[in-house]
């Protein structure tokens, strides 16, 4: 039984060959599809007028976030009717 290393080498080579074959098969099956023949020829798109977009209609009022700055309350006029500058 002095030739066990030969059996180990054959096993290692069999595993390596199986790994290589499965890698190549997976790479072949997962390759990107070939471009169509018409895709290779440059085609100019037809010149068309751009279509106008419909107006944007807001259906709900904007939300106010809790962290957003708020407007200060209006100041009350003084007894003489003069309002101080903010």
Structural class: mainly alpha
Enumerate the spans where pLDDT stays under 50 for 5 or more consecutive residues. none
The biggest sheet, with number of strands, parallel, antiparallel or mixed sense and barrel status, is: none
Distance between the termini: 101 Å
Write down how many β-strands occur, each being a DSSP E stretch of 2 or more residues: 0
Helix fraction, binned, reads 25-40%
Q: Report the sheet-strand fraction.
A: under 5%
Overall shape: it is: elongated
- Overall average pLDDT: 78
| Rg from Cα | 39 Å
Q: What is the number of helices?
A: 2
User: SSE string, helix = H, strand = E?
Assistant: HH
Write up this protein.
There is one protein chain. The chain is an all-alpha fold. Helices cover 35% and strands 0% of the residues. The protein is elongated, with a radius of gyration of 39 Å. The protein starts with a helix and ends in a 46-residue tail after the last helix. The model has no long low-confidence stretch (mean pLDDT 78).
Looking at this protein, list some descriptive labels:
86 residues; single chain; 35% helix
Report a brief summary of the structure.
With 86 residues, the chain is an all-alpha fold.
Write the layout of secondary structure elements.
Layout: H1 4-29, H2 37-40
């Amino acid at each position: 039984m002095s030739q066990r290393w030969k059996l180990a080498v054959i096993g290692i080579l069999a595993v390596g060959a199986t790994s290589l074959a499965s890698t190549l098969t997976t790479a072949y099956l997962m390759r990107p599809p070939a471009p169509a023949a018409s895709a290779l020829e440059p085609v100019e798109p037809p010149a068309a007028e751009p279509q106008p977009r419909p107006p944007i209609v807001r259906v709900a009022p904007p939300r106010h976030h809790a962290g957003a700055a708020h407007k200060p309350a209006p100041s009350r006029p003084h007894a003489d009717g003069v309002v101080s500058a903010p």
